[in-house]
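Our collaborator T.R. sent over the components below with a one-line note: 'Predict the complex.' Nothing else. No constraints on interfaces, no templates requested, no preferences about which chain binds where. So this is a plain run: every listed entity goes in together, and whatever single assembly comes back becomes the starting point for the next discussion.
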Amino acid sequence: MTNIILEVQDLKKYFTTAKGQLHAVDGVTFQVEKGTTLGIVGESGCGKSTTGRSILKLIEPTSGKILFNGEDITHYDKRKMRPLRTEMQIIFQDPFSSLDPRQTISQIISEPLIEHNLVKGRQAIEKRTLELMDTVGLASRLVNTYPHELDGGRRQRIGIARALAVNPQLIVCDEPVSALDVSIQAQVLNLLKKLQKDLGLTYIFITHDLAVVKYFSDNIAVMYLGQMVEKSSSDDLFKSPTHPYTQALLSAIPYPIVGKDKPERKLIKGEITSPVNLPDECRFSKRCDYTVEKCLERNPALKEISPGHFVACARVE
Amino acid sequence: MTENILEIKDLVVHYETDDGVVYAVNGISLAIGKGQTLGLVGETGAGKTTTALSILNLVPNPPGVIKSGEILLDNINMLSLPARELQNVRGKDVAMIFQDPMTALNPVMTIGEQIAESVMLHHKDFSKEDCIERAKEMLRQVGIDDSRAADYPHQLSGGMRQRVVIAIALACNPKLLIADEPTTALDVTIQAQVLALMKQLKQEFNTVMLLITHDLGVVAEVCDEVAVMYAGHIVEKGSAYDVFNHTLHPYTEGLFNSLPNLRERGEELVPIKGMMPDPMQLPTGCVFAPRCPYVMDKCRLGQPELKDHGQSHFVACIAYDSEDFKLRRNS
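Returned assembly:
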């Protein structure tokens, strides 16, 4: 039990809009074991980023519970969260807008060190900054450059170094490689993986890219319209995807294969529906090929179909 | 003369800035035959978009200068066409789809009006009603109910906006459709829908397509031919089957190795080391040499020519001067 670093219970985040309640995250429950990676996959608007940010209390959740190392942090205010900031960090998608353009790299990386009083004395701070740059593979000659002088891959490394500065246990990676070219993407993924091994980090890896998530995650949760529709170990999910949405997502991936062995594609109709004022029915029913009457009666709950493999679909009930 | 709809010959494009010359496109040659889709693949800064803009003579000048080369659309050289005639070609014979549908559409015009506008511009003999009728027909073609013709772009989702952009592009029945990263901004399930739509409409409208993308998966999905671009050079080109299954250039191999493959959960990806060279200071010799795992001394002497390696599969790599050279991927 002590191995669970993060536990989220029935997390909800509603936004009030002119049209009604927007159910961004609608009852999400999961646990993350220390040293593992949980991948959260889904398309734009499914609530994956809102989930990630709620965990860090960057967004105040509407209801539910967040336990970090057994400590209930759901109702912590900014002051109480502050010491916890050294335990949990985030890496953002866009390395262009998440770095202050008027700070040099050394200023960006050393800021958390100074802010949290982790290292004292100018020389020690300088030393630690260079150490961090070395860890993420940034040449020390870049120490006084500004973000705009660097390419996307290097900027993302700065974001990683900044997150690592406080020696966190948990890092939420929100689409960390989506803005990068494939060859650079591979470099950054390798780096994140190596850091996990060396430092025993726990990741929550938020992405829309199933190829990346498979490569990276131990467990995967698939989200659709604010809810988790399938949750299992990475191998299981790819071997036997059960929810129709998971199947559609897998089938929609353009495989870099021409000729033989190319998997058959199955398109799903329509687009993600509005998350405002949702009726009590399966949220995927409008796009699903298997919709029957039962699907429109109520929203199915997650059910364990084999050890550790959960699916929310009327077909498995 | 030939069956080629589009032919690019030795195109060289530079951006002459105050800081120096950016060598964006350095002598590339391409051709697209009837009914074909050519995929132009490469990473940021490879010169893909500059190539596309050159076709319509749209490279922003200054600082962009088309230094030399020919671009033949149905055997007419676009680069020597007077501005007036060029206007008639743009949007009519050659249409373009951009990456971001929100910036490509006018936010204060309804989508019906926007489609009708492009018809009106190129068919002076059409009445306004004809154009609007045509716009509605195009909307149906791309899978949008024509009752939405009076909607504004902000009322549509990203996938639908891209469908509207496709409708505008195809409204005048172009000979050539240039699609610059058309699905990069879309979600995977929507991307799959849009790619299927583009493939189908390309057939129906009997147009050829130049698809620019960084995503090898998308290329595999829609393209017949592939050209791989790196630092302003084409380093490999051939049929999609050959390029994917009998890869020749080390850079292409590097791209494949960087992909987190869905089929195996490998422990480590094999990225290409280093990064793309600064286009202001391209390395002497082969542009890929500084990152190439097979590099030899003679690679530093000059940029290798694109040579036929059999069955119209071209590669620019001098390693193939020796008969028994093989990439690791193929051995």
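Summary for T.R.: The interface with chain B takes residues 43-44, 151-153, 181-187, 189-190, 193, 208, 210-212, 214-216, 234-235, 238, 248-249, 251-259, 262, 265, 267-268, 271-272 of chain A (CB under 8 Å).
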